[in-house]
Design a protein that fits this description.
This protein is α+β, with helices and mostly antiparallel strands. Helix content is 31%, strand content 19%. It contains six helices and nine strands. A five-stranded antiparallel beta sheet has the order 5-4-3-6-7, covered by helices on one side. A hairpin with a 4-residue loop joins strand 4 and strand 5.
């Protein structure tokens, strides 16, 4: 299958600069955002702990709802709007997290990524080939996806690992997102079955998971639905 890509952009850098101009102004910390950021990070030991607390708050309190009206497919709402309404799509999560971090002196950048594609390369022509937006915190060299409500701090979902991405507020040459270390990804399942003289039996299963395997296990159990855990 052949494709023809046409773009009025000369480079990925120009794409990044154009996107940054639509995004940065939306991430201004309002008084409410300032107050929330300082409340959430009170007593935090360092930047990593502050970032962890703010990331957890956004992913647990902002619902994912996508509304594409006009240029809404590419331009986020104001961060204050996202906080007031408690919902938004991926770029709205990013812009609110960016504003919260800025309120406590931590810089972050939106990152464009093709999370829904199994193609691990970008076309040579700079176009909006992306379908998702995540965050990058340069001081921690850390990628975060605040829409991934079951993914713990410091980890990306499996479909966002080792993917080409454009970091908007820095050198816009595509780079790759990190992969979870194999040493950090494990799942151990232990099952104990007791059989009684009357022929009945019961079973107990213990699952211990780490890294991306813990996300898979958590998502699977949540997908069972209430009352179907066994």
């Amino acid at each position: 299958l052949s494709h023809l890509f046409i773009s009025n952009l000369r480079s990925w850098d120009q794409l990044g600069q154009s996107y940054a101009s639509q995004h940065r102004s939306k991430a201004k910390p309002s008084p409410a955002i300032e107050a929330l950021a300082h409340q959430l990070t009170e007593g935090a030991a360092d930047e990593r702990e502050k970032t962890h607390r703010l990331y957890d708050w956004v992913r647990k309190n902002i619902r994912y709802v996508a509304t594409y009206i006009g240029n809404g497919g590419w331009v986020p709402h104001e961060a204050s709007w996202v906080l007031d309404n408690r919902y938004g799509d991926c770029k709205d999560h990013v812009v609110l997290l960016e504003a919260l971090l800025r309120a406590v002196g931590i810089e972050s950048s939106p990152v464009l990524i093709a999370a829904g594609s199994d193609d691990y390369s970008l076309p040579a022509v700079p176009i909006l080939f992306f379908d998702h937006e995540i965050s990058w915190v340069p001081s921690l060299n850390l990628f975060l996806d605040a829409t991934a409500d079951t993914v713990p701090f410091g980890l990306l979902p499996a479909n966002e690992q080792d993917k080409p991405a454009v970091v908007i507020y820095r050198d816009h040459n595509p780079q790759r997102t990190p992969m979870d270390s194999p040493d950090n990804a494990s799942l151990i399942r232990t099952t104990e079955i007791r059989v009684f003289p009357d022929g009945s039996a019961d079973r107990k299963t213990d699952v211990q998971a780490r890294g991306i395997a813990s996300v898979w296990a958590r998502d699977w159990y949540q997908g069972l639905g209430k009352g179907k855990e066994s």
